[in-house]
Amino acid sequence: MNFTDFIKNTNWINKGDTIYVISDMLPLTLNYRARGEKLNLDAVIDFLKECVGPEGNILFPTFNWDFCKGIAFDARKTPCRTGALAKAALKRADFIRTKHPLYSFAVWGKNSLELAAIDCKDAFGPGTIFDKMSELNAKALVIGIPALSGFTYVHHVEQMVGVPYRYSKDFSAEYTDLGGNTSTKTYSMYVRDLDMDPRHIEGFKPLEEIMINDGIIKREMYDDVMCSFMNAVDTFEPIRKDIKENDSKNMYTYNHL
Description:
Elements: H1 3-10, E1 18-23, H2 26-34, H3 41-52, E2 57-61, E3 73-74, H4 84-90, E4 96-97, E5 105-109, H5 112-117, H6 129-135, E6 139-143, H7 153-161, E7 166-176, E8 182-192, E9 199-200, H8 205-213, E10 217-222, E11 225-231, H9 232-246, E12 252-253
Parallel strand pairs: 1-2, 1-6, 3-7
Antiparallel strand pairs: 2-5, 4-5, 6-11, 7-8, 9-12, 10-11
């Protein structure tokens, strides 16, 4: 069974869904290569588009954090640091890159123009792409990594709820948009307070186990690679509960100042 057949057989994705794809495709790529085969990333993307149809949406994270260092961001050229599948999507003419220079996405689908128009200064809070995921009832497909370790929606919940170990910080640098217009712009991120030294626990593994046991996260193994699926909105309450009722102990260790 090839990878797309595997995803089809899980029945995780339906017409009209908004899918946030988080992936490390290297393990699958190496497994295919060992058998003398090639994993076609564009075919995977085309398959996902077919699964959700024209009424759905596909979002690939195309994050890059150089803007934090004062390095210019160019929406047309700045590479993403979030894996081969996202890089493949970013090269395609049918995907549009959203505006935030730290947490951009390559998006396709019914709401792609609406998502691409969002120009919120903040990365995770109200009015951001992550906030819009809640409105669209987005689902996350996670390939090749633990379900929550790359699930940046966690930081959206942290900011919406408020945590002691993060604060909003501004970053400014040159910014070139998709039209080639350049100016100095300022964007913000809910960053870790280094004095409190927050460190995530094995990719939020304790919280992931709770969500698996509660049926929020579904998992299947394909070709010795773990694949997970979850509804973003369904994760909000378990994350909020851990923050407010458990001092985030299922996610982080940190110094209490």
